[in-house]
Amino acid sequence: MIIAGMQKNSFVDYRGKVSTVVFTPLCNFDCFYCHNAQLLKKSAASQEVMSVEEFFTYLTKRKGLIDGIVVSGGEPTLQEDLVEFIAKIKEQGYFVKLDTNGYKPDVLKNLLDKQLLDYVAMDIKAPFPKYEEVILRKIDMSKIKESINLLMNSSIDYEFRTTVIPTFTLQDIKDMVKEIKGCKYYVLQQFHEPTWADRLSDIRNKMKPHKKEFFNEAIKICKEYVSHPETRALK
Questions:
Q1: What would the CATH number be for the domain defined by 5-169?
Q2: Checking CA distances to 153, which of 26, 49, 121, 186 falls within 20 to 30 Å?
């Protein structure tokens, strides 16, 4: 398990809980708006900020000060020993939230079956016909659909979330939310221009984010399909 980044205290990454966030390297997608793009490089896999042993020593010291651990990335499900890592966190009595793009449903199912997760946030990157255009990868969409079904039929808390890139229309929002009809939480996140130098040359990064009025209309659409749609990171 490689810990390529860590945020010791967060009040926003785990709904209703104070958490520590650990970031894993590498991802099987390449979304142009990613703000953790430094974790996507192969070199990130050899740049640990903390060993696993040091992390668990840290957790022992933080007992009573934080409620849970968020395992984020990159894409955590690419880590071969993710299950063992999370199991050890649970042994220490912490809640665990997983951030994932949902492309490894086998890993997600294993974690769910072993009752190692308390919360999952899964990204819905785009309307299904536009997925590859946004993530810049050729993929098997059945894997995304399988992960959605796993979460919606599980007993744990979860949310789906979408970064609303400037090219998305209200019809795109409707197409996405229809795929998760009946879920509890759906979060629309505002697009913000990436700051990583190697991405600034991409013309798409010069696009302006949608205004609040767009999100107001989008939420109205979402309310027809999900219980608690909400916005995040609006400016």
A1: 3.20.20.70
A2: 26
